[in-house]
Amino acid sequence: MEPRVFKALLHFIYTDALLEVHEEDKIVMAQGLLVAADRYAMERLKLICADMLCSYINDARTAITTLDLADKHGCRRLREACKKFLTDNFARVGP
């Protein structure tokens, strides 16, 4: 786990709030926190991260990467959001 993800995890544990991060770091931080939340059975944090990641699904690469993450960590709602994006945008992302 990256030190900044660990710091954000501790911050959440003690404050029940997410650390503020730069806009360009939000996806990577949400991904790292989702993995940590799954590892330590922190369902509320896992749901918060999954919801945050849902809002960043806007291209095929992000959708596929996020779908893989959702599958690995049992995030059904996030998985469905990725599948919906890919299905709805098949003409743009398909062969």
Automatic annotation (TrEMBL):
Q: What is this protein called?
A: BTB domain-containing protein
What is the source species?
Answer: Miscanthus lutarioriparius
A single Gene Ontology biological process assigned to it is: protein ubiquitination
Q: Where is the BPM/SPOP BACK domain?
A: 62-88
Family, similarity comment: Belongs to the Tdpoz family.
Q: Which residues form the BTB domain?
A: 1-55
Which InterPro entries does this UniProt record tie to the protein? BACK_BPM_SPOP, BPM1-6, BTB/POZ_dom, SKP1/BTB/POZ_sf
User: CDD domains in the record, alphabetically?
Assistant: BACK
Q: Report the pathway entry.
A: Protein modification; protein ubiquitination
